[in-house]
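User: Sequence for Ferredoxin III below. Tokens please.
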Amino acid sequence: MSALKKNGETYDPRYIKAVNAENCIGCGRCYKVCGQEVFNLVERADLDMDDDDYEDEGAMVMSVANDGNCIGCEACSRVCPKNCHEFERAA
Ligand code: SF4
Ligand code: SF4
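Assistant: Structure tokens for Ferredoxin III:
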């Protein structure tokens, strides 16, 4: 699926699929840069992960809350220091 730039050219967007919660340090950079309210910072314990690996109770991690809002700009990936974001093309 192609999307249109302002100048009328097309591009092939890749949309957010997931955040790798094991690598995420909860820095919030992707949350701040995304203008589409896709992300939500949650407690790591709320993700139903195996907490044995994480001694820091209350540690925060980024989650994808509204993937349908994503416009495929990939800005989130460019600011992430841990390369957490996975993308997919529209079906
Ligand atoms: S690709 Fe763009 S719109 Fe989609 S989640 Fe990342 S920053 Fe937000
Ligand atoms: S920028 Fe990367 S490390 Fe920081 S909160 Fe987002 S996914 Fe996690």
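Helices lie at 29-33, 75-79.
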